[in-house]
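Notes, p. 3: input format for complexes.
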Amino acid sequence: MKKIAVLTSGGDSPGMNAAIRAVVRKGIYSGLEVYGVYQGYAGLMNGKIKRLDLGSVGDIIHRGGTILYSARSEEFKKDESQYLAIEQLRKHEIEGLVVIGGDGSYRGAAKLTEKGFPCIGLPGTIDNDIAGTDYTIGFDTALNTVISSIDKIRDTATSHDRTFIIEVMGRHAGDIALFSGLASGAESILIPERNHEINEIVQKLQKGIERGKKHSIIVLAEGVCSAHDLAKSLEKDYQIETRISVLGHIQRGGSPSGFDRVLASRLGARAVEVLLEGRGGRAIGMQKQKIVDNDIMEILSQKDPLPEGVYTLSQQLSI
Ligand code: F6P
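Output follows (319 residues plus 6-O-phosphono-beta-D-fructofuranose):
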């Protein structure tokens, strides 16, 4: 193998640049030519491919976003689009592709591998919802962004004796809500993996009030419902006035944490090694501090489990 390429796809996450840098530098260190594909799979179909050198990835390890840009592409789900993508790669004599993204991006990588083009998946998403890795690139940074926002909101919640609902990202995965809720001492944490009764939330708020607590933080994952809807229902049915804060895309930006930079560098470098070993269709991850690779199809068929112990603990500490 002489030439490989790298792309970022789906929602961006802090640390993607560090992963790109690792793929490029480890590739060049190993004697390969490395190419960047711009704008994810959409760009790949359109042949937006450029050679990257050591300097192309200089001064990016600390930057959020992705220098290769990202996109979500419906078009790429079609077989003919996947063949077109392979044609574009072969035009440049590229023989392997590293895809950095979430599960949608992994699906694309699996499809290309199935069609004869070896791809490796790197878990780049703030959601931390990819099986086969304890952490995804960007989760730690997003978590810290959320925690520092909640800390600030707590200041004003305390001053005004208010209940706040803070909506965080996570359509299907509650990791951001769970970890940030635990780390910021939230009174209630609502995640899509659990059924939550509004009565329970209200009882908890009332119990707090009874023991003299006048402010509360509810961390709500967007996949449960919207903060607006929850606020309306608390007000209408229980006469509980709240304030809401929807953190939104602020969670996806910012300089990656040290943890994310190291994780991205380790996973990116390993992706190159696995391609050089002649293996495609693998998903790289970190499990129990070790860098591992698994069959990408198997990873896609598994649901990343919610850390039960962390959920139980969050319940025990927020009584
Ligand atoms: O997959 C990452 C993620 O940030 C989710 O948590 C969120 O629901 C979604 O992307 C938002 O996507 P978009 O930026 O396309 O609106």
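Residues 11, 102, 125-127, 169-171, 222, 252 surround 6-O-phosphono-beta-D-fructofuranose (CB under 6 Å).
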